[in-house]
Write a structure and sequence with these properties.
Oligomer: single chain
Number of strands: 20
Helix content: 40-55%
Structural class: alpha+beta
Number of helices: 27
Number of domains: 3
Length: 586
């Protein structure tokens, strides 16, 4: 049991957390992918924690963002994208936040979702929605196959402070984060730096990925560090095909917004139904395109196995010459020109003459003829006459022409698997932040919402603010879900562990009364005295869970008392209080 003294130091009665809510509130601290799946409010809580953080606000002073307020929304977003690309890597290794087991996590969550639903809906427990990942064996793909089949990674979602702190970790030269971390960072930074209203930002989580849809002009999709416009979405490159994979193959589990969330599994939704309908309409519009010559060329770029059906005619020095389509596409990799109407001639002019033939190739369709065809024929896949007309143009002895048509339809029409409208939409208090609010006003506003909006309340736990939260969820998360520091210290005696942690840099990655979790302290080799004290307690408590341990914080010191060990480390967190972990803690 954790017994933290909350009355003596002025915490509110509302900070007392009911036992059944302790999993949710402690999950707001650890923020693992599986916890966000179970408690969907946490996805937006992390966005709000990042908006409250001084880190992103400090970016405004960076010369890179000079005069950004004078830019168009599109240029602002591109500016932000490049900043994120330059300063953060994508990271999804197994070592960063350690491992747990399926049995342990299913036991944790069984009172919230049935084991069967968890296994069918979450990638770590048996979900097999993405054909690509499971055709290559997801456990092998992520390197989990070297462990027993019940072992799964924590894959915690990082706050902006933890993302930036990766530069202190061995083998990292800049910040880093996994896909949920980057998507929530993007959402916060789009609001703060680009002044995109929160109403225009939608977060989409699937069992294997997290992306955002930004409702500006034709729309944008964030994909890890990249940003994808509608034109890019249909460019047919391998990079874009990877970005589409989650949307094409997976169930979108959570859609999160400033008005609430919709979850594929839960029957109740808190998102405003009008906002959800608007989102579905605009996302669907983004994912569908008309067919013209450029789109057709992009389609063949992605479906490269179909290039063998086509040839390209080129007039050079007043003579006709011919080349296989696949050869022309191969040359794209070394040219600034592409196979499309505007640059095709320039691309072909760069190719050596000996790659061309003087006569047409047999059994190949002329790609050029579709330039005029699509100008005079608007293709409607619902119109049989128009489809039959296109089929006549696609005659190829190498591939069934209906297969070409089916693949073209799939390329131009992506129908995402969104949570259905068969939800009970509950009216909740929206989080109405505006782009003209400063950081202090935002924190004050969110504080005023805590009793009316669970997401706002949980945001302060994701924010790790010890001055505004009950300490018990933080300590529960610290002792139960920080395996990296425990594993790393197995070879050390208790006294050696004390010395290792004592010699860490006495500096927190969080400002003010906000605290790092033990594995953040360990991974980044630094921490305030109180943070290092909690890291020490995590290691020692998990060695012998029946020992009583006290942490006392007063007079700018954190004191840990445990049998034969007593340490006193300086703390600048401005926090006073007492935490006792008794022998029956579990």
């Amino acid at each position: 049991m954790i017994l933290s003294d909350i009355k003596k130091y002025g915490k509110r009665e509302s900070d007392m957390i009911h036992k059944i809510d302790m999993e949710k509130y402690s999950s707001a601290v650890t923020l693992s992918d599986m916890e966000i799946f179970i408690f969907p409010e946490l996805l937006y809580s992390l966005v709000l924690a990042n908006i409250m953080s001084p880190v992103i606000w400090s970016w405004k002073k960076d010369p890179w963002f000079k005069s950004i307020d004078d830019m168009t929304p599109y240029k602002k977003i591109l500016r932000l994208k490049q900043f994120i690309m330059d300063n953060f890597d994508f990271n999804l290794d197994l070592e960063t936040w350690g491992l747990t087991t399926k049995e342990k996590e299913i036991s944790r969550f069984k009172s919230f979702l049935s084991e069967d639903v968890i296994k069918k809906s979450n990638a770590l427990f048996g979900y097999e929605g993405d054909k690509y990942y499971f055709s290559i064996d997801i456990r092998k793909h992520f390197g989990i196959d070297k462990y027993e089949s019940n072992v799964i990674p924590y894959w915690k979602t990082e706050t902006i402070e933890a993302m930036e702190a990766f530069k202190y970790k061995n083998a990292f030269k800049k910040g880093a984060g996994e896909c949920v971390s980057i998507s929530t960072l993007y959402a916060a930074a789009l609001f703060i730096i680009c002044k995109i209203p929160l109403e225009n930002i939608y977060l989409l989580a699937t069992p294997l990925h997290s992306q955002n849809f930004i409702d500006i002009k034709d729309g944008f999709i964030t994909n890890n560090r990249r940003l994808i416009t509608k034109n890019m979405w249909f460019n047919g490159t391998k990079l874009t095909a990877k970005a589409q994979r989650a949307m094409r193959n997976e169930q979108i589990t959570i859609v999160s917004h400033n008005s609430g969330f919709v979850h594929a599994v839960y029957p109740e939704a808190t998102m405003d139904i009008k906002a959800y309908d608007d989102f579905k309409f605009k996302l669907s519009k983004f994912l569908v395109t008309d067919i013209n010559f450029e789109i057709f060329c992009n389609f063949l770029r992605q479906e490269s196995h179909l290039q063998k059906c086509f040839q390209i005619k080129h007039i050079y020095n007043d003579k006709e010459r011919y080349i296989e389509a696949e050869k022309a596409y191969d040359y794209e990799s070394t040219s600034s020109f592409k196979v499309n109407e505007s640059t095709l001639d320039k691309l072909l002019s760069e190719i050596d003459t000996y790659d061309f033939y003087s006569k047409p190739l047999e059994d190949r369709i002329f790609l050029n003829k579709f330039i005029e065809y699509f100008k005079s024929h608007k293709i409607d896949f619902k119109d049989k006459n128009k489809i039959n007309g296109l089929l006549d143009e696609l005659g190829c002895p190498n591939v069934n022409k209906k297969k070409i048509l089916d693949a073209l339809f799939e390329f131009c029409n992506l129908n995402p698997k969104l949570p259905g409208n068969d939800k009970i939409f509950k009216k909740t208090e929206s989080i109405n932040l505006t782009t003209d609010m400063d950081r202090e006003s935002i924190i004050s506003y969110l504080e005023s919402l805590r009793n009316k909006n669970a997401t706002a309340d949980l945001a302060f736990y994701a924010y790790r603010d010890f001055s505004r939260t009950n300490w018990d969820p933080f300590m529960k998360a610290a002792i139960e879900r920080n395996p990296v520091s425990i594993e790393a210290c197995k070879r050390y005696s208790d006294i050696e562990v004390v010395h290792v942690i004592e010699n860490m840099l006495n500096h927190s990655i969080y400002e003010g009364p906000r605290l790092a979790q033990p594995d953040e302290v360990w991974n980044f080799n630094r921490g305030d005295g109180l943070e290092r004290a909690i890291c020490l307690v995590n290691i020692l408590k998990n060695r012998n869970r029946y020992k009583d341990i006290d942490i006392n914080i007063e007079n700018d010191n954190a004191t840990v008392t445990l049998d034969h060990i007593k340490v006193i480390w300086p703390s600048r967190k401005g926090i006073q209080g007492n935490i006792k972990l008794d022998g029956c803690f579990a």
